[in-house]
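Entry 12.
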Amino acid sequence: MVFLTLDDLDNFFRRYAKQQGFGIVKAGGAYKQEKGKTVNERRNCTWKCESGGKPDARIRASTRLLNGVSAKGVKMANRKTKKVGCPVMLHAKVTVDGKWQIRNVVLQHQNHEPVPSISKYISMFHREDLNAVRRRLFQHHDEGVSIPQIHSALAAERNGVENFPVSERQLRNVVDKEKRLKMMEGDANAMAAYFHRMSTDNQNFFHLHRLDADERLKDVMWVDARSRAAYIEFGDVVCFDSTYLTNRYLLPFANFVGVNHHGQSVLLGCALISHEDAETFEWVFTNWISCMGGKAPSGILTDQDAAMKKAIAKVMPNTRHRWCLWHILNKLPLKLGGYDKYDEIKQALLRAIYDSYTVEEFENSWKEAIDAYNLGENAWLTGLYQEREWWIPPYMKDMFWAGMRSTQRVESMNSFFDKYLKKQTRLYEFVQQYCKAMERRAEDEKQADAESARFCHQLVSDFPIERVFQKIYTSAKFVEVQQECMKNLYVSIVGCKEVDENVLEYTVEDRVWVRDPNTRKEVPTRRKREYEVKYNSNSYEAWCVCKLMESSGIICRHIIAVFEKNDVEECFAVQVQSYFVAGFVFCTSPCHAQGSHGGRPFQIVPVMVGKMIPESSIPPPLTRTTHSTFVLLGNDWTTPLSSAESSKDEFDSWKELLELLMFGTKT
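Predicted 3D structure (tokens):
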């Protein structure tokens, strides 16, 4: 038989071997010689059955058998071999006209019996199948899907594993080979090259690294364009954590996490660090703030780490530092478990921490618990009390924390990364997988935006304040407002006194709510407590001692009850957090709630759901920080500002901006 090319002959013999059920190998051949030099062109070639030849009888040094018996018993070689001396072969030579002619062939197998059904288990026949699924293999693997899951999905498309000849091991070998190719210049260099490509594609991609004394990679941090944009809107409060280990070098994965307007966690920056000491944290914080335009967050939440505390105090002196309450309370069994009345001690301390809404209440409750159980000599509790301003809720409620009081939000983000990162993840893969994860996170936010725009939660009460937040808050945050409206069922006003001109202080009785450990939802207990709500009957403003509005941006049920008591019902202007508003707002500093009674004029900031106002469209003298953010909802969007509250220029500017919002142009 004659073939035009060597590849034609090779494919022919492969097809034959596949039909019969045995593998073949190129066992030898010679190259052409021209003027005494070898030319890269074959003049003959030999193929043999993969079972040809004799097995390797050499004893490796690692076995070191002595008559087959060692001190630990009988040892046997566990290596398998395909070599059984099968004589099947095919030899071909190049003819004068350059074609390939078969000169010798042996087709009778010996010492083994080929079976056509085993062809799908012979790896040499899987090249075409691997090439067909190669692209999808890497797509799924880059998304964080495991090799077994990819294999199952590909096999399902072929109606079962029996119809898909490629094994999990072969898929894994293809992936490992690709990794080795990328790692030819080193892991750190591969990551640096990836950073360079990302920066070339998007100039807002920030990355920085430093080396140790031996010129080896020490620390690296990066912030993608999405994170830098998100920090502008949601960077007031962040969590920082460095306890996540998801790479083969065991470098802690430190990340900054914030909260967006849907209550979702957003990543605001990452770093792989070599040491968890003050100097390293200082390097991370300094460069992270520099990347964010020099603006430090108003508050930062971390675990109880002395190195972090020192670095934050130096780099962010004006930032309020808060410790994770959950991590501290998790140490109670370890630190206090040896006391006979541990359960009673725990409940007394938890009541002092959670049931205190003012500093004075906490001080009294804590002292009562310490004295009742003779805990004054406990060094751990003494140390916590001395540093109470870092973690006790009453000390923190005077500023906005976006509902965060523990780093569990960071741990939730870490769980999200578990889908994409593994212990074997290399450095260059780490950053690639991080970008993949961020794309998924961004898509989740877009979906939540779309759902907030398309759907609306129905009202659960007749409170006018609920109707206000229905129009201005995103769906996720509006649900929290509705929960406060529902909890109003357990609220009753039991007292009232005048504390200043036009200022009334209401005493509001409410149940104590606790989180059910099984359902993780708040449920009312039989215990009751009282709250003080101050209400200005002239300006229709209200403040509650629970400070839910100040710390979380959610109006509390106690203020709702006071508004109902005073018939504040026609329309409302409520100071809200820009984190949770569906439209455009000017500032991010919540303070109190304000209502309107009988059509009285009040201060407003124009915000309309779904409309965005560019910076250039804000007429002077107004700026994004001219006023606190108030939202007017009612029938009359052109209600004038009180002359006592605003200048003529500001009034004209607000009117101009209202017209822009309502009509798209000035009337």
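Annotation: The chain is about 35% helix and 20% strand. Confidence is low (pLDDT under 50) at residues 61-67, 570-578, 583-646.
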